[in-house]
């Protein structure tokens, strides 16, 4: 029998209660679930009883990677961390976080496709994985330290090649709003407290092996190079921000910010990002500068370079140096992060004295990262900060916390946009200090419950963009109309699905997007221009399903859903088409398990369906449509009173969304009345055993 | 004395020269190319050199599909290679330095029609427009006074950024919405 490639071959299981370390065969047990979230959902389904709480020893946390991790396929650096979710309110349900960096590759090179953490150690431990040698080590000297010091200490023990995924004080203190972080700036939100509840401080991985590619060397290299040609900038934006000699189009809203004259100003010597002609594959890493994208042109002078995950050419984490913060705040002048992690500090503030893209905003970003990335605090995609702003300015904090505690804070500094305020608030969250620190660390749902604030108030405030179950929207109607709304109903935390938004923000003109949409989802009607939405149709439902299935596929293959799928490309000679089969091409060559796009999508749909089943099982209801797949009020409102389907509003229509949900359920083979998958659908996707169990509990339609 | 050989070689070198200059974001005139070739020693100075070279260039452009000729408002001919420069970029360059108000207006109209979207006025300070702040301001004042530019309007986002759009293609409300989305909304939804 031909040797299977891609997978490392072993799943590691660490029982922290007994100290026992065992290994299982990945392909034998988990091949049909690929890896990543697939393995995670399967383990939770099989092994974690319904009703288990996130911090119970019976909960498990699965660090899963996929067959493409560590292979050299572009954008393969993701690790999925699956568990029962501490911030999911009112009842914990299945969810996953994802971290980039070097952990996924290191784990594969060490010989593992996943690490299942179960039980609870009787004292703080950390897990040392050095190829075949796996040990639980005493972490009492690390407990109480931040992520930085922990990483340093473990590096001194395991060597400079180690990749360390660690929790900070927030996770140790079972703060639900906490992360695990590896490779300096790559975090998986929401899981820190689960690790802390198990007394697991960190996992250190040294891997000296490699990943076997089943296909021929030339075939693999050709496929990888082909994939590289399709890449845009971060989030697969395929059009540059400013006109370039080679570019037919440009779009000021894209992340392809490189241009002659735009320099990494803090590099020595400064590096000009240049025109980045798309056929020049050696210039991919120069296209993106997320610091400048978010915080404006001033940020270029602070930029040192891009950084990111193993083997990914995009380099979406910006490494930057801001000398003023050393003097003003006593913190290191270097920082690195992207997206919400980069913006954590700035998002706490309503305004800054020098505007949203001034020096102060950049300093706030630095202070925020310095604190949160060491303490291990999660922002819940900005919900923490939005809640804070609302509650301060509406007097809620003042009403809910003791007067003595309220006086501790320098509210005048906060209101003036002084980044030093973050030194007061962030540690208090990590250490559960006082009523405010404790409440904020619970996550929105539990915080509202603690303070007796009806969730309904949050659901009608458009500034909060709160969605449900304690979490916000993540690329909903503002990016993708009805399809975005449907996508945001599905998960038990913020959706983290970028399949749809990578397409709508790619920068191409609307007629090109519609042409590509027609090829992929059956009609130009699948795609509307932003804020010029038209009534629901079946093609939008197909798009929504495609987006979700691909997200799960990516999270199980270890492909970055912040980049894929590759629906579009920067190549004019391809009509700006990407390649919707790139995942199956790479998977087939790497593993030797030849699958067409449709066949691999079916695997993705199986994994997606298992998430659905877990949610139904643990909610103990099949009435998903009314009890789970809900849409907040603000989605159906417009502050200027514009009606749905008029230009200039993202306001949705109730009846139209109901129609959309029906169409989506139909596409998925789920009952249209309840939103619960039918037994037939489970069977077709190889989950007959799931149907059987749910059937016994009366949870089938 | 220039030989037929030199002319043949020059004919082969012209496309490459134009392609490289296009890659660098530059249009070139016949004079630019000839001066460069003379400097390199690829051609020798002679009587009627310029006329002969123009004929050679014309023939070369005809023989090479990727080479294009574009004429500015003063009837000066420029050349670029579509291998490394798009028509869209060439169109910006040809208007730059000629009629900056028209350059701005046509850019705004094209963006409003095609994407559709308004454009931040600051965009014109950067390459390839490279207009000065005073120049932009002057253009906007001129446009306000001329009927042919009355479709070019402004909208200002909640953080004070000025965007331009064409009412021929974008309704003011929608332009305002899109400007706010580009300038504020997207960054709040990373």
Would you count the extended β strands of chain B for me? Answer: 5
How would you sum up the global shape of chain A?
Answer: globular
Helix content of chain B: 40-55%
- Helical proportion of chain A, percent range: 25-40%
Classified in CATH, the superfamily of the largest domain in chain A is: Aldehyde Ferredoxin Oxidoreductase Protein, subunit A, domain 2
Q: What is the fold-level CATH name, i.e. the topology of the largest domain in chain B?
A: Arc Repressor Mutant, subunit A
Strand content of chain B: 5-15%
Count helical runs of chain A. 29
Following the backbone from N to C, one meets helices and strands of chain B in this order, namely HHHEEHHEHEEH
Major beta sheet, strand line-up of chain B: 3-5-4
Structural class of chain B: mainly alpha
Taking Cα atoms only, what radius of gyration of chain B do you get, to the nearest Å? 21 Å
Our count of helices of chain B gives 7
Number of β-strand runs of chain A: 19
| Number of domain units of chain B | 2
Could you name the ranges of chain A where pLDDT drops below 50 across 5 or more consecutive residues? none
Summed over residues and divided by their number, the pLDDT of chain B gives a mean of 91
Summarize this structure as a short list of keywords or feature phrases.
heterodimer, A: 701 residues, alpha+beta, Aldehyde Ferredoxin Oxidoreductase,  A, domain 1, Aldehyde Ferredoxin Oxidoreductase Protein, subunit A, domain 2, 3 domains, six-stranded mixed β-sheet, 29 helices, 19 strands, 13% strand, B: 190 residues, mainly alpha, Arc Repressor Mutant, subunit A, 2 domains, three-stranded antiparallel β-sheet, 7 helices
């Amino acid at each position: 029998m031909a040797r299977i490639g891609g997978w490392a071959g072993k799943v590691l299981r660490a029982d922290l209660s007994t100290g026992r370390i065992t290994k299982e065969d990945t392909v034998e047990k988990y091949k049909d679930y690929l890896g990543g979230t697939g393995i995670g959902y399967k383990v939770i389904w099989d092994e974690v009883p319904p009703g288990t709480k996130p911090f119970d020893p019976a909960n498990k946390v699965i660090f899963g990677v996929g067959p493409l991790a560590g292979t050299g396929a572009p954008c393969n650096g993701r690790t999925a961390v699956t568990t029962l979710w501490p911030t999911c309110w009112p009842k914990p349900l299945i969810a996953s976080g994802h971290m980039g960096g070097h952990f996924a590759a290191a784990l594969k090179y060490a010989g593992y496709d996943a690490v299942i953490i179960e039980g609870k150690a009787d004292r703080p431990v950390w897990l040392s994985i050095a190829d075949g040698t796996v040990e639980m080590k005493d972490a009492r000297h690390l407990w109480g330290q931040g992520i930085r010091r922990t990483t340093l200490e473990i590096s001194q023990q395991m060597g400079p090649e180690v990749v360390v995924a660690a929790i900070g004080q927030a996770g140790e203190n079972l703060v639900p709003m906490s992360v695990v972080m590896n490779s300096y700036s790559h975090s998986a939100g929401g899981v820190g407290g689960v690790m802390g509840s198990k007394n697991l401080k960190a996992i250190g991985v040294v891997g000296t092996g490699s990943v076997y590619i089943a296909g021929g060397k030339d075939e693999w290299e050709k496929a990888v190079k082909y994939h590289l040609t399709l890449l845009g900038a971060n989030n697969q934006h395929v059009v540059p921000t400013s006109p370039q000699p080679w570019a037919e189009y440009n779009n000021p809203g894209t992340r392809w910010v490189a241009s002659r004259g735009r320099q990494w100003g803090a590099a020595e010597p400064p590096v000009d990002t240049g025109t980045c002609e798309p056929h020049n594959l050696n210039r991919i890493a120069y296209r993106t500068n997320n610091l400048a994208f978010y915080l404006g042109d001033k940020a270029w002078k602070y930029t040192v370079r891009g950084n990111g995950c193993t083997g990914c050419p995009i380099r979406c984490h910006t490494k930057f140096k801001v000398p003023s913060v050393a003097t003003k705040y006593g913190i290191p002048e270097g920082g690195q992060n992207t997206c919400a992690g980069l913006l954590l500090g700035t998002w706490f503030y309503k305004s800054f004295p020098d505007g949203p893209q001034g020096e102060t905003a950049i300093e706030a970003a630095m202070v925020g990262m310095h604190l949160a990335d060491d303490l291990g605090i999660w922002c819940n995609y900005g919900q923490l900060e939005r809640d804070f702003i609302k509650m301060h300015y509406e007097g809620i904090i003042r009403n809910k916390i003791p007067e003595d505690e309220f006086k501790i804070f320098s509210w005048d500094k906060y209101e003036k946009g002084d980044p030093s305020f973050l030194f007061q608030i962030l540690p208090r969250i990590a250490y559960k200090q006082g009523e405010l620190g404790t409440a904020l660390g619970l996550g929105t749902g539990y915080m509202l419950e603690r303070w007796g604030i009806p969730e309904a108030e949050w659901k009608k405030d458009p500034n909060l963009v709160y969605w449900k179950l304690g979490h916000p929207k993540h690329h909903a109607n503002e990016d993708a109309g009805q399809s975005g709304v449907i996508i945001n109903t599905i998960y038990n935390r913020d959706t983290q699905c970028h399949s749809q938004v990578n397409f709508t923000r790619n920068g191409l003109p609307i007629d090109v997007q519609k042409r590509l949409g027609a090829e992929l989802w059956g009609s130009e009607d699948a795609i509307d221009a932003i804020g010029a939405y038209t009534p629901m149709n079946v093609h939008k439902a197909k798009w929504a399903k495609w987006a979700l299935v691909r997200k799960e596929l990516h999270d199980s293959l270890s492909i970055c859903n912040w980049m894929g799928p590759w629906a579009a490309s920067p190549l004019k000679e391809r009509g700006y088409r990407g390649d919707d089969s790139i995942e199956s091409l790479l998977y087939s060559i790497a593993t030797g398990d030849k699958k067409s796009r449709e066949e691999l999508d079916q695997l993705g749909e199986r994994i997606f369906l298992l998430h659905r089943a877990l949610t139904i099982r643990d909610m103990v209801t099949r009435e998903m449509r009314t009890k789970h797949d809900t849409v907040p009020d603000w989605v159906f409102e417009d502050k200027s009173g514009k009606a749905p389907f008029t230009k200039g509003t993202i306001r949705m229509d109730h009846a139209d969304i109901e129609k959309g949900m029906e169409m989506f359920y139909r596409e998925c083979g789920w009952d249209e009345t309840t939103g619960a998958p039918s037994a037939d659908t489970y069977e077709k996707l190889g989950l007959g055993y799931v149907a059987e169990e749910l059937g016994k509990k009366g949870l089938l339609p | 004395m220039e030989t037929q050989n030199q002319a043949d070689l020059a004919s082969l070198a012209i496309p490459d020269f134009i392609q490289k200059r296009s890659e660098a974001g530059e249009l070139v005139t016949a004079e630019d190319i000839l001066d460069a070739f003379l400097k390199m020693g690829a051609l020798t100075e002679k009587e009627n050199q310029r006329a002969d070279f123009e004929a050679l260039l014309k023939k070369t452009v005809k023989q090479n599909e990727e080479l294009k000729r574009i004429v500015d408002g003063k009837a000066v001919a420029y050349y670029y290679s579509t291998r490394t420069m798009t028509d869209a970029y060439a169109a910006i360059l040809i208007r730059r330095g000629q009629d900056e108000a028209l350059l701005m207006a046509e850019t705004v109209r094209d963006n409003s029609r095609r994407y559709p979207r308004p454009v931040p006025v600051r965009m014109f300070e950067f390459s390839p427009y490279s207009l000065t702040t005073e120049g932009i301001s002057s253009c906007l004042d001129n446009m306000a006074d001329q009927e042919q530019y009355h479709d070019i309007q402004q909208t200002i986002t909640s953080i004070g950024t000025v965007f331009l759009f064409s009412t021929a293609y974008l309704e003011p409300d929608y332009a305002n919405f899109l400007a706010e989305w580009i300038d504020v909304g997207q960054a709040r939804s990373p």
